[in-house]
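Need tokens for this chain, all 538 residues.
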Amino acid sequence: MHLSVSEHYRQLILNLLLTIAVVCSLFLWQGHYGLNLADEGFLWYGAQRVQQGEVPIRDFMAYDPGRYYWSALWMNLESSHGIMALRRSLAIFQALGLGVSVELIAGLLPKSASSQSKTFQSKTFFLAIAALVLGLWMFPFYKVIDTTLSILLVAALAFLAQRPTYYSYFFAGIVVGLVAVFGRNHGVYGVAAGLGVTVYLALTRRSWVHFSKACLSSAIGVLNGYLPILFMLALVKDFAPAFVESVRFILFELKSTNLPLPVPWPWRVPFAELSGFDALVKVLVGCFFLAVALYGVFAIPWVLWQGVVRRKPVAPLEVATAFTALPYAHYAFSRADFEHLALGAFPLLIVCFAVLARQTGRVKWVCLSVFALASLLTVAPHHIGWLLGQQCRLGQCTEVEVVGDRLTVHQGTAAEIQLLQSLAAEFAPGDPSELGGANRPFIATPFWPGAPALLERKSPMWSIYALFPRTEAFQRAEIERIKAADPGFAVVLDLPLDGRDELRFSQTNPLIYQYIQTAFEPVSNQPPNSPYQLFKRK
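Here are the structure tokens for all 538 residues:
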């Protein structure tokens, strides 16, 4: 028993050290690189506004509140509104997800009685490769919260499949409720996957009484995990109607969870237009899309066949990944770009390492090498550290200061930052005698939700990321908010999203666009061939 306990703690320390090493290495590599005023800015602005006492969804367009309160907590601890404080908060969350995934995989590797044994050394090497590959797949960095949520769901359901007691169902329900606090889509995926695992366990036990009690235990757990949102709905003024409206908009107006893109299947790669390396990367991306789809479709029938029909034991981690794979395949294909592939691939990635962990001899290491190399070639070229590193070698980078942080960015990004700073200095200088005082707002729509965060201002619009068509009533309410805020200038990027003219801001929000043209006048010295439309207050 003493040997087992000491080995367990030694393994935990090893897993922790590997996790910290990978997360810190990735952060040192690219943590100070780039600035995404779109998706990353969407999170950054929300975290800043929470620091100022505002409420996500009620006071500004937002994801579910959990991620903003997490980020704002760490930013407050650093007494910072800056982007690096936000990124450090995300690195901590990334360490949580990566640590859990490494622990799941470590439990499948052979035990070793001594840290000097060959078994321990090969196990350490295997886990180091797994940690590095999974850490690279946690892309993009500003979405590591979503990646971690998928890992936590897999871990909770694997625990449930291993020990199907009513306490385990309650615990799994709590995890599902908690992940929904950070993203309601993850909550829906968790409920679907959890129900699938519950049905599977009822079928293997041949007990539907167990099924009904298990569902009750899980439901109570979900409610307990979701208590932060339930308290907000009950106690935070005007949050409930805003929350309900956000659900109504997705279900009945948008009727989709995202703006779809064509799937980049490997046979669709335009080989004649690409270099050999770029073509290889696109082929690998297409192959991973194919693998996510196939595993999502065939994993559940295989698990049911093995566990229910043939009455053979199925590894708990395989059960968990089988039932989470299909929901997260939906996530990957809802907008079929690499970002969503990475966010939806973790059930597949974890089960790949789980299968490899059980192999022996040369087969194990050859397959591990091939899988790791394929992952490296697929993922690394999409990271900002790779992309910006190449641009910096060509002399296309520069350093900028953003809210007290030094960043290395592409010259185009630096020009955008300089544009916003110069417009603010000229048209919203923050004269305390003017309306709006030192924090006079400005409009930056629809693709730059991070622009107000860059200048530590409040957006005059609720819809800080105005990508979708809106009703006339909504647009008129936005116009009233703009009038009340009296912004000093406006930057409009009236560009065709995904190449679709119907998704230009002038088409999705025509009344707001017309109001800006009426209440503002064009800036005289607009940059030549600029994608921006610059306006100053009349």
